[in-house]
Amino acid sequence: MTGSPSRLRGPLWFRLTTRHLLAHRLQTFLMVAGVALGVAVVISIDIANQSAERAFTMSTQAVTGRATHEITGGSDGVPVSAYAELRRQGIRSIAPVIERLVIPTSGRPLTLLGMDPFAEAPFRPYLESLGPQSSILDDLLTVPGAALLAPDTAAELGVAVGEAFELDIDANRRRLVLVGTPTPARESHRRALTGLVLTDISTAQELTAQPTRFDRVDVLLPSGDETERQRIATLLAPGLSIAAVGAEAGPVREMIQAFQTNLYALSLLALIVGMFLIFNTMTFAVVQRTELIGTLRALGVTRSEIFRGVCAEAAVVGLVGTTIGVVLGISLGRGSVDMVTQTVNDLFYALTVRSVAIPPMSIVKGVVLGLIATVATAAFPAREAAAAQPRTALSRSAMEETAGDLVTRSAAVGGALLLVGTALLLIPSRDLWLAFGGLFAVIVGLAFFAPVATRWLMGACAKPMGRLWGALGAAAPRDVTRSLSRTSTAIAALMLAVSVAIGLRIMIGSFRTTVAVWLDTTLRGDVYLSGKTLGGTAATTPLEEGVLAYLRDLDGVDRVDLVRSTSIDTARGPVQASASSRPYFDDLRLYKELAVDAADVPARLAKGDILVSEPLATRLGLSAGVDRLSLSTVRGERAARIVGVYYDYASTQGQVLLDRSLYSVEFDDDAVTGAALILDDAARSAAVSDRVARELAPIQTLRVRPNRELRREVFEVFDQAFAITRALVILATGVATLGVLSALLALQLERRRDYGMLRALGVTGRQAARHVFMQTGLLGGSATLLAIPTGVLLAVLLIYVINRRAFGWTLHMQLAADPFVAAFALAAIAAAAAALLPAWRMWNSRAAELLR
Amino acid sequence: MNDSPHPLLRIQGVTKSYREGERRRAVLHGVDLEIERGQITAILGESGSGKSTLLNVIGGIDVADAGEVWVDGTNLTRLDEESRTLFRRRHIGIVFQFFNLIDTLTVAENVALPLELCGVAPARASESVADLVDKVGLGDRLDSFPDQLSGGEQQRIALARALVHEPTLILADEPTGNLDEHTGDAILELLAQLTRQRHANLVLVTHSSKAASIADRVLVMRDGELTQGSAER
User: Do A138 and A187 form a contact (C-beta atoms < 8 A)?
Assistant: First the structure.
């Protein structure tokens, strides 16, 4: 008989597939769940990252607007006279700005933006809406304390037009009056206004008590107009400089991106574990249909048709899983936005915008990744199925014989991945994706050794288990070996999840210990005072003279150490600086590099040398004893010698440490932004702290904390930063648990007749269930054993490669018992959870059913 | 009846061996065979004699290490895997000892499978399937699934599947090996009857001389070598 097209037609394979999938609902569920969870995690992290990124961009752009350059004057700002002089010289595209993070009586921080409405139009387009509303403009200029808020911000503060509201500005409570709620026509402009408190520049000067200066002057230069920039530069008074906008935001953005890259990488890990699950279930689906495939091949179905059929089946599973994953990912994303923005806020930058965006690209990424991952993973079992001769495919053991080759081949792939990974890690680059690529290759490469390790471990277990539990005991490890293609992938998936749990726990534990030691060496005061800080910014609000006088006269205080935190201009751009009256920098543990004796450091600082923190040294490529950093002092440029690089985990951008007395002279700045009280009796620190806070409240709103509370806050922020990481590890372990469950179900289905025979011979349901637990125990135990060295290696890479490249921090590795105990518990829980259903089924099965 | 000048099947010097651990075990030792059209040929042999391997080589399911296999004028040993599969799809029908019906397809769908693979229109396929399933006596079970049928009924459906696309050659590997004597006899009778009715050719391998009794010609396979059995009948 002849017909036209000779190929396995879609409807036939569709029938075969759908009926198989429906007949094996639990397996189908596991497969779909693996894809769905992987995709959901990737999408949710992407949504959270994109929202944080958007929030950061909007928070910064709302205040910088279209300005191309800005004129700054370090901590002093820009004198009004300097601005006036520039205008007199015919420089028109400039606008003065006062910008502060301010705290309302309740709710999130806002940005106070003082601007000159007449000079503003070219800079911040969202202010165009003020034009026609001339009455608002009149009020803004004439009403004392007049401010504008976006309608949603006004609603959040519970204030209506014409009503007064209060804000903490520079640690002082100030009263403002809402005179309007501008609503620009464009959505992007409306969003930009969210979180801003707009005032006229003179009002902002009053509110911040700086009548003679602005924070900066924004400049709008035609693209590439270097001549005009140079002209402005020559007109500037000493101490003032013009630089491209974003120079300061750049490092912050870099750090946020590094943090986000870490999250992306972790989310990909969940997908990789999901891929192992897909591989496992697809392989099983193929093995289970060995006879079917053999029959089809004997009937004339070609290899490519089998291959396409299996891949198409995977694509269907992938599509369903991905669709569910997208829905799940969006809802998870909404939750993780808060976690991510909170961490960005705590560590890097105070975000005034916190809306959730669902970028279509996040969905596209998840869908593409989910489908590609599923089909690519299924391609391996599909290839196995297609490659089998009809003769071999008809025999039951054929696929497992092929799985025997898997041991050699997977070990070869693992070896190759290890080499590639090591090569990638050895490339001298700061690129984080390159480092993660290397790390993934190494870890996944080790996972590929799971089959060979499993075979070896099971061989070693058979005898002792036989002695302990007789024939059934000896059979358990042999069963695991006999179904190596599935059991070893389940072990690999669980091993990956557990090793990541171990690696991250070691890294987080080491990080915590490092920070604790660092706090011991740096936080030597008993009570700390500072202006209220927002986000990752250092407290830069000066303490008022009354506060300093109070501290000088306070009873029971042995000494008061003062610090000025600010931003200074250097030849390498603006950097955070800390000028300390008595730097405790005599402890060697603090230094990564030191060019002089630790005891000589204070004296060297007093003579003009400086210390730089490790992140700054890494970012700018500075070394102690070799490099100098040119500081823009009021007397001009001074190349300060770097005598040491110290560990610092307070800032990811890095900072310069100077002697305060010298700083006061060189920068003409006597301000103090923080104080540490060393008490006669340290035990009284809580009581003194309470008293100081209470007695200083009428003078200035300050944060007064005893040493212990400050430490607690540091660790709260620390734990918050890693909360999402822990959640991702739990998700990855969940996916791996599904992998173990899938492998156990596979074993059971395959050995159904054997179990039936055993039950017929008199093995009880309880004994059969125990056999299942033995198998799961072997899977979990093997995964843990393999996860331990892998986890330690992962920790080494995270600590010495990833963290260093991402944040410029050196962490000191600590190996404690708890990561290993926790990992063992995790694997045991995962394995036991996976065994429950199969064991229950076995317990309740009857021999006749199994033998049928 | 085909008027082709070629014999239906010609096998020359076919050898085949399998790896067993470090060693290779020879299963076929230079088998030569020629089968004319319109015959039912039985190959009789004990377990392990190589008769199933020979059947697999004839069907292009397995490949000979050496020698040539011609089916209806086509040299299977010169074909690549894909072409061999497509040849088998169109020209060969196979009956297995363990029936090998697809559990998730109904009786009608199982029987229609070769037609579907050959691209026959569903309406035409349905007619052929209904007709043939009726002939094997299971016309009322078209919508049943294999696990709802007895062993004998499953093998009847397997016969229908092997014949439905009107192959030139039907290969049957121990078709009664998994059935009781009475059912086995009935199956053999049906197989012979359908083969003759449809002017097909059948090569049957079996260890049972009773099963071989339906054949026009009986060959004996012993230790991988083929010898003439009883005279042609």
Answer: no
